[in-house]
Amino acid sequence: MILDISDSEFRNILDDKRLFLPIRWNGEDFYVFLRSVINYYISKLTNVTPKSTIMYDSIKVDLPQVEIAVGYIYNTVKFYLNGFPFKAYTELKKVMDVLIETPLQVYNKTVYEQFEAYHDELNLFRATKVPDNKPYSRSRIFHTPYNLRSKVSTSRYSIAGFPSLYMGTSLELCCEEIKANPYQDFIIASLFKLERSLEYSNTNIRVIELGIKPQDFIENDNVSDFRNNNRRKIDSDLITNNRIRSAFLLWYPLIAACSFIRTNKNDPFAAEYIVPQLLMQWVRNEMSSSNDDEYNQLIGIRYFSCASERASEMGFNYVFPTSGKKSPTNSQLCSVLSRSFRLTDPVYVNEYDNIEICEHELISFGNLGFV
């Protein structure tokens, strides 16, 4: 059944704090809690009254498709928690087979798709703790080298031992994500820019959008006060587009399943990471699907932070997985990522009066180079 949903009905569905993201949960039974959230969402969809006449300007959602995707999400988590990770991935792939037919938003980041690529305004930052106060090269702030994969702990979109490149659109967010105080710890930071020219990167770069929340579609006076000064700016054309709105209703269960705040970071296993980690495995499979060794694919994910509700409004996180291919100039770094980003020499954040000044200086440096 295709539901024709009006603007007011759409807002009524999403203007519900039980559906707001990220989700803070009780930490007891992840499968049960996930089902309670998504079942509640499905109940709100099914309560929409079918229209007797066709509405040409409506927001359309294929309810059976939503329910099919949700069933696969439930199976994904259930299989994983029962010790069947391969079966879990098989179910997650079925989820994506459904969703990719109605994509939410995919940003193409190569020159062929965007003629103004050389004027790209996307500034990405990365911060990392270091043990001492000495000069470090660009490679120190890049992804964890292949030969040090034993140092890679489990992360939201990558499993233990698998290096990925995580960045954020604000330096403050980067420090929040690594739980670092730049005025107590030694923290180095760099600005990253996507290398959009095929002349250098020879890479088709795409970014999957998972950074939209239900709150983004609601009037500002209905959401938390801290959003008034947020740095996570959503393009107004994006959230007023009925195609995007229709797709969001289909994608919401997956985004929600990826957006639980971790209850205990000291525990070795995080149920909150089941779905996002399997989603990254799907991304890796999509990247490796090209048989052309001369033309690489790089797929990333844009998402909001789930470290806390406050952090979720500080900006966007971007994650790009390593390819397994070795850079000709540094065999311990990914060749695809190495050619896809230029970055500044790292600086110590504590050398600046505040994080904002450090961020501004990194943007104005202009000394971007490859690792």
Structure overview:
The chain has 2 domains: 2-104, no CATH class; 108-212 and 233-365, no CATH class. A 5-stranded mixed β-sheet has the order 3-7-8-9-5. Strands 4, 6, 10 and 11 form a 4-stranded antiparallel β-sheet that branches. It has a two-stranded antiparallel ribbon with strand order 1-2. 40% of the residues are buried. With 371 residues, the chain is α+β, with helices and mostly antiparallel strands. Helix 3 (63-81) runs antiparallel to helix 4 and helix 3 (63-81) runs parallel beside helix 7 (242-257). It starts with a strand and ends in a 6-residue tail after the last helix. It has helices at 7-14, 30-46, 63-81, 85-99, 171-177, 236-239, 242-257, 274-287, 335-340, 355-365, and strands at 2-5, 59-62, 106-108, 124-129, 164-168, 187-194, 203-210, 296-304, 316-321, 341-343, 347-348.
List keywords for this structure.
single chain; 371 residues; alpha+beta; 2 domains; five-stranded mixed β-sheet; four-stranded antiparallel β-sheet; 32% helix
